[in-house]
Amino acid sequence: MTFSKAGHQKxxxxxxxxxxxxxxxxxxxxxxTAMHLVVALLHDGYDVGSIDCDARQGSFTRYVENxxxxxxxxxxxxxxxxxxxxxxxxxxxxVSARDDEARRLTEALDQLKDCDFIVIDxxxxxxxxxxxxxxxxxTLITPLNDSFLDLDLLGRIDHGGAKILKPSIYSEMVxxxxxxxxxxxxxxxxxxxxxxxxSSLDAKNKRDxxxxxxxxxxxxxxxxxxxxxxxxxxxxxxxxxxxxxxxxRRDAKLDLGIAWRMSHVAARxxxxxxxxxxxxxxxxxx
Length: 286
Hints:
The chain has helices at 30-43, 59-74, 94-111, 128-135, 148-151, 169-183, 204-220, 232-237, 262-278, 282-285, and strands spanning 17-21, 48-52, 82-85, 117-121, 139-145, 155-157, 164-167, 190-196, 223-226. The protein has one domain: Rossmann fold. The longest helix has 18 residues, at 94-111. The model is unreliable at 1-9 and 249-253 (pLDDT under 50). The relative contact order is 0.17. Helix 2 (59-74) links the parallel strand 2 and strand 3. With 286 residues, it is of the alpha/beta class. 42% of the residues lie in helices and 15% in strands. It has 10 helices and 9 strands.
């Protein structure tokens, strides 16, 4: 049995469990979800590495950097991940660029090989680096805004909006990466689709999308998870690199100057529910 430096049981095989945030559409909440997962695992006592494969936009990287600045300026004990940003290659040919990016990602994963978990954020577009990152995923999380437009990324819908006709471009890409992983002898990818920005109202649109997602989940093999409601607090915390899991923690005694509201309680519960569905918390993984 292998244990982490924190004394917790490591993932079977003694290697990091890799979580990839993937979606070829921007604005789905990948970076916010990635950061909250990183902090949740850190607070559970795990050693966590983080990789930003979308270094050009760099939202994930800036979130991590903001967190480091807050910890240094306020002298507060914020747990931090070991972070690496990977930029797209400037090589002249497509083949050389793919090889260069593959080398960069492989080296980053090797640098973090003693971590318990590695969380990877990918671009909101189809790139060779994103495809490669997907092949390393033990858990793939696809945040999805609750709309027919975003659902179209996973499956083609009939004109009546009642039936899935066939898997769409991103689903086909994931299926291809699953095959590549199987060829290499890797464990199956646990694919999770999380519904973000759900309306608090039980609208017909919300129910229809839920039914379509259930159809698609059975057809192409993913699990559904609760996501994050559109809440101002998620955006407010970004400049300081904080998450809802850092606020009002009894063991930390942090005064972050944030007035605690019931909406924050609900938002933090959303984060914990996602972690519970993933089955990656310390008590579940041990």
